[in-house]
Design a protein that fits this description.
alpha+beta; 5-stranded mixed β-sheet
């Protein structure tokens, strides 16, 4: 079964929202609940639908009438250089659609879109234990530049 990637519209919000729990589809650190990984993204996307997040852009992978995956970026200055950049906010692929290159295709579409909108780089966050995602990002040329540490107090 083939698929195509296209820019998402606000009319795509419900199938996009249905994919958000997939953001927690790996062995989470003990202190995290699955909802921690996607509730904020859901709120962000609802603000996009309402027109309150004009710096967000999204692409979806579709097959016939099904949404197989989504990527969302936010245009923002790069943290250290302050050059125009983008941040990958969401990448989720539907259960059963993994291993078909959908995630890579979505990231490439987001990179192309970010570049067209003036971004010089794209950043992202990924949990250290999410080895599958980290492997894909590294395959696509991303560098694990910063580490984030946390300690419960």
């Amino acid at each position: 079964m083939g698929y195509r990637v296209r820019e998402a519209t606000v009319e795509d919000i419900e199938p996009i929202r249905a994919l958000l729990p997939r953001l927690a589809a790996f062995e989470l650190p003990q202190r995290r609940s699955p909802e921690d990984l996607w509730r904020g993204d859901e709120e962000m996307l609802l603000r996009w639908v309402d027109g309150r997040e004009p710096s967000l852009y999204s692409w979806i992978a579709v097959s016939e009438d099904s949404v197989l995956g989504v990527v969302v970026i936010r245009l923002r200055d790069e943290l250290l250089s302050h050059e125009p950049g983008a941040h990958l906010e969401v990448l989720a692929v539907a259960y059963g659609a993994e291993g078909r290159g959908i995630g890579q295709a979505l990231v490439r579409a987001a990179e192309h879109g970010a570049r067209d909108k003036g971004a010089h780089s794209m950043t992202l966050h990924v949990f250290g234990v999410n080895t599958r995602a980290r492997g894909m990002y590294e395959k696509l040329g991303y560098d694990g530049e910063l580490l984030r540490y946390i300690k419960e107090l």
